[in-house]
Amino acid sequence: MDDLHALLDDAVADVEPADRLGEIRARTRRPARRPGRYAVGAAVLTTAATVAAVVVVTDGPASDPEVAAGADPSVLVPVYFVGDTPRGARLFREFDRVPGDDRGAAALALLQAEPSDPDYRTAWQPGSLLDVTLTDGTIVVRLGTGAPGGADGDLSVQQVVHTVQAALQSRAPVQLVLRDGDLVDRPVTARPALDVLSHVNISDPTEGRVVSGSFTARGVASSPEATVPWELRRGDEVVRDGFATAEGWLDRLYPWETAVDVSGLEPGEYTFVARTADESGGEGPGPDVDTRTVVVE
Length: 297
Known about the structure:
This protein is mainly β. It folds into two domains: 2-194, no CATH class; 199-296, Immunoglobulins (Immunoglobulin-like), CATH 2.60.40.10. 12% of the residues lie in helices and 37% in strands. The strands form four sheets. A five-stranded mixed beta sheet has the order 2-6-7-8-9, covered by helices on one side. Strands 11-17-16-13-14 form a five-stranded mixed beta sheet, with no helix packed on it. A four-stranded mixed beta sheet has the order 3-1-5-4. The chain is globular, with a radius of gyration of 19 Å.
């Protein structure tokens, strides 16, 4: 899967080679494509997410996902959404597998679609992002409407920057352009990951994943002493807990993973919670948190 290995080339600050994208369960969306540029139409935003034909190994070393024989070509796209943390709004990353080979169109389509995690949001409405090109060292994103304002305005621009840089595998600055060609301010670079991203992010399981026996949770974090506490809850009751050890901390987000035993649990919905360690003794803003709903069979 060449697209998976390309994504492992650290296109943006928090996409690390050890992030093990090959183990991520991805959703399928179906974007349209216009020739000549990475283009996206409003129709691509109405598709429903379905489970992709991806193999995920929960015990032992995992291999890259394999698309079922005869399946259409597809690409794996990281996309960033806005979510809340005790330090204010930050970006969280999801992965989507999208049929076709047009990373740019896929990235723009996903930015304008509902995230799978209901805790995330996007200010980019259908039709607000038209197409994206990489020309002469600049990524140009053409807008159908102006950039979003409000409390998430600046972060929404960073949402686009991080997403299209990852999709196109380029750290080039991003220039937003109105439909008529007028520039929107100057080209924008990606701000440091620890300034704009949540300090903990779950990559797997995806929202609503069905599990049995055990599953492996994975993600990235920058947490004190590389410790990532986690819990499995049913309602307000904690039924499992533990911690993962990330591969580092302080300077960036590092990969972490942990096995979660769900054997013996009653079937139904549970919430997997990962957080950063809080060493402030309650004096600081509190830990960053990310959650996923899982369904135990």
